[in-house]
Amino acid sequence: MSEPDATTVRTCLTEGKLDVDGRVLPASNVTLVGQVELDGLSIRCVYKPVRGERPLWDFPSGTLAAREVASHEVSELAGWHVVPVTVLVDGPFGPGMLQQWIDEAGDEMVDVVPEGDVPAGWLHVLDAYDGAEQPVSLVHADAQELRALAVFDAVVNNADRKAGHVLVSADGRVRGCDHGLTFHTEDKLRTVLWGWAGEPLGEAEQEGLRRLDEALARPAVAEQMCDLVNDSELARLRHRVRRLLAQGRFPRPPQGWRAIPWPIF
Length: 265
Hints:
Distance between the termini: 29 Å
Largest sheet: 5 strands, antiparallel
Helix content: 25-40%
């Protein structure tokens, strides 16, 4: 059965009745799962209440839910559609973010293989040693959908793109989740998707960046985004978009901080 369209999902998440029936463990912040029902439609969802957010030294307290929603908005404005529908709600445990649950097909886009044994159609990220002290390589698929997610991460300054945050549904769509650590004013990009580092952006990626740049210049969109991130964070978002357009290439791993999230998965 195909998914309902994004508009229908948004309406259901925003206006429907949420029933929580479980919790995702382990998770850094309280992550609950449940069902939202509206007019006979039932949608599986993830609910992260603000009160369950763990305080961080580098992100303001109580802002992660809004950053998740802002990430979805950026994905939609650019036309990438790589983030499940995400909204702010006042749920049973208070205000928080509510996101459409994505059933995974089991197809992995990021993997660890014996060192140097990179499969055809995959890209090398780094070499390391596993828990058994065996040499391994971190790799990811060379897929167009994953390219869009990598550019999206650079735009929102995602500090936590783990392999487990890359979702592949039964229809082959690639999406990402867990976008609370985004939109910082300092460069903090940490990701497992470095396989295209330094390579030219394709026309599809550049078109998405141009579309996003034009959208963010509209006062109504800027006002909407400022309900989710602050003025400085919005300014840096626009700066990153324009920097990527000017450079025309995927970013390279930074030298001043850890470029890979931990744990990787």
